[in-house]
Write a structure and sequence with these properties.
Blueprint: H1 2-16, E1 19-33, E2 36-43, E3 52-55, E4 59-66, E5 74-77, E6 103-109, E7 115-121, E8 131-137, E9 151-160, H2 165-175, E10 184-187, E11 204-207, E12 212-219, E13 225-230, E14 235-240, E15 243-250, E16 252-255, E17 260-266, E18 274-283, E19 295-301, E20 316-318, H3 328-335, E21 356-368, E22 382-388, E23 391-393, H4 400-406, E24 437-439, E25 442-445, E26 450-457, E27 466-470, E28 475-482, E29 500-502, E30 504-507, E31 511-518, E32 523-529, H5 532-537, E33 540-545
Parallel strand pairs: 1-4, 3-8, 9-12, 11-19, 18-20, 21-26, 23-24, 25-33
Antiparallel strand pairs: 1-2, 4-6, 5-7, 7-8, 9-10, 12-17, 13-16, 13-18, 14-15, 14-17, 18-19, 21-22, 26-31, 27-30, 27-32, 28-29, 28-31, 32-33
């Protein structure tokens, strides 16, 4: 009888998951890259930051203590935060920021998710150095839907600035110009030997022949989508944004800021007598300037011990071939290969019918130059802006979720346009008037509404890809295409069988993407471009999802230590 009790207790513990405690101290740390030493904002003096590891079903409690002069928040990117919107992290959306010498406890349970996600600061451009991986292991006694790898490795792409990124965006918003671009891209914090003064700052991945490695790829870059390839090797894509995919093989891939991609790397059966570069560089189609450089790491095979081997320094170095900078065709082809497993264990619960349809344009625009000032934006007579349905979103001064929960008026409005107020030829010749409207406008959705959202890129100030991230949800990508979306022909090609499920997806340059989701998570949820320059310019909006009737369908009350503005 006692044995049965212990078995039951063990089963209950497995079902309920553990509670995992972390402490994140946000503090200054001097870091030298490219022969420039700079005081960088970090968590626990690590760049990139520490790993957060949990299992599906675990409760995670992170105490964040702010030791720096800047206000800060942390976002757990891709974690669903079911009914725990207070722990989502975007400043002035779900919380006021954590002020200097203050702390806040993020408390959430990881429900129905397993795979690679990540955490990052979510205020201004602080995420440029405040970021790290979230690794969610399957429940105990559960396995991957692919053969267990011999080893797992996290690879985070980032951006390095020789000067203070906060000063860069602050100046750009003041002058209306495009901000200065980064000085390097990084792999796990290291730029690699193609940059000045950086041969020692190179990430090396040491592997053994005949083994399988699970690489957890995360694009934490601030403003750039990246191509990635490992010379003379292919990888098998098995997951995107912590959702398993039907496996497919590729020798190169593209990953937008905010996205994660898990791939299996099978190493060569014998020692290859060579080193192989792993390279990442931007995908860019816009009109502005960008950091046109390449970060590389080295894939290094372990020498067999019985071999009189050459020093690894004398080995041939093989370089990968990456797509051209503006290879939009490759990007569309690659993203089109992602499909959910769509089986009984991992179903694709895509809405088959839709309660509410939305059509959002996303792209750039302008704000007029204030009187008696000069601006350095388009035509030197305006300021750069960005918008959704021509509304450039202004952050409020108190959090939207607080205003929603406590019924405070005057913080935001609920009149966000469901379609463009003035239709135009979105991907053709841009209109003469490119000015945006400014406001803090949101869309309100009743609980469990089935939503279809088509996002259309515009050619205003240049067609470019916009990686849109929706907080609090995964969504299904049911269709994508180039040109202007046709509401009659588009849906005929929608995939409602095994569409890919993600939290971040690129709206194609000069094209559109259609997504569907059930609004089953009450709260205030940010949706924004994950190119931070576009977010700063206003390419962002908020969804307010109302409580449902059931006890587990209501936003939980705010925690007692919720920061005040």
């Amino acid at each position: 009888m006692l044995f049965c009790f212990w078995v039951l207790l063990l089963f209950m513990n497995n079902a309920a998951g553990e509670t995992r405690h972390y402490k994140f101290n946000v503090e200054y740390h001097n870091v030298t890259r490219l022969c420039h030493t700079r005081t960088v904002l970090t968590v626990n003096r690590k760049f990139p930051g520490p790993r957060l590891v949990a299992r599906e079903g675990d409760r995670v409690i992170v105490k964040v203590v702010n030791h720096i002069a800047n206000n800060v928040t942390i976002h757990w990117h891709g974690v669903r935060q079911l009914t725990t919107g207070w722990s989502d992290g975007p400043s002035y959306i779900t919380q006021c920021p954590i002020q200097t010498n203050q702390s806040y406890i993020y408390n959430f349970t990881i429900t129905g998710q397993r795979g690679t996600l990540w955490w990052h600061a979510h205020i201004s451009w602080l995420r440029v150095s405040i970021y790290g991986p979230i690794i969610i292991l399957p429940k105990r006694n559960e396995s991957y839907p692919f053969a267990k790898p011999d080893k797992e490795v996290t690879i985070m792409f980032g951006e390095w600035f020789n000067s203070d990124p906060e000063a860069i965006i602050s100046q750009a918003l003041q002058t209306g110009a495009g901000p200065n671009v980064s000085d390097a891209f990084t792999i796990n914090g290291y730029p690699g030997p193609l940059y000045n003064c950086s041969s020692k700052d190179t990430y090396k991945l040491k592997v053994k022949p005949g083994k399988t490695y699970l690489l957890r790829l995360i694009n934490a870059a601030l403003n750039d989508e990246l191509f990635f390839s490992i010379a003379n090797h292919t990888v098998t894509v098995v997951e995107g944004d912590a959702v398993y995919t039907k496996p497919f093989v590729t020798d190169k891939l593209v990953i937008t800021p905010g996205q994660t991609t898990n791939v299996l790397l099978k190493t060569k059966p014998e020692f290859p007598n060579a080193n192989f570069l792993m390279a990442a560089r931007p995908y860019f189609t816009g009109q502005g300037t960008f950091d046109n450089s390449t970060t590389v790491g080295i894939l290094e095979y372990e020498h067999p011990s019985h071999h009189n081997h050459k020093s690894s320094k004398n080995l041939t170095i093989i370089q990968p071939v990456l797509p051209p900078i503006n290879a939009t065709g490759f990007v569309a082809n690659f993203t089109g290969k992602f499909c959910s497993l769509g089986n009984a264990k991992y179903p694709a619960n895509v809405p088959k019918t839709v309660d509410k349809k939305f059509f959002f344009t996303v792209g750039l625009g302008t704000n007029p130059c204030p009187k008696n000032t000069t601006c350095q934006g388009p035509n030197n007579s305006s300021k750069f802006a960005a918008s959704v349905n021509n509304v450039s979103f202004q952050l409020p001064t108190i959090a939207i979720l607080q205003a929603h929960y406590f019924g405070q008026n005057g913080v935001y409005t609920t009149d966000f346009p469901t379609q463009p107020l003035i239709p135009f030829n979105y991907t053709g010749t841009p209109p003469n008037n490119t000015n945006v409207m400014n406001g803090t406008r949101s869309v309100v959705l009743p609980f469990n509404t089935s939503v279809e959202l088509v996002m259309q890129d515009t050619s205003i100030l240049g067609a470019e890809s916009h990686p849109l991230h929706l907080h609090g949800y995964n969504f299904f990508i049911v269709g994508q295409g180039f040109g202007n979306y046709d509401p009659n022909k588009g849906p005929l090609k929608f995939n409602l069988v095994d569409p890919m499920e993600r939290n971040t997806a690129g709206v194609p340059a000069g094209g559109w993407i259609a997504i569907r989701f059930f609004a089953d998570n009450p709260g205030a949820w940010f949706m924004h471009c994950h190119l931070d320059v576009h977010t700063s310019w206003g390419l962002r909006m908020a969804w307010i999802v109302l409580d449902g009737p059931g006890p587990n369908q209501k936003l939980q009350p705010p925690p007692s230590d919720l920061p005040q503005c």
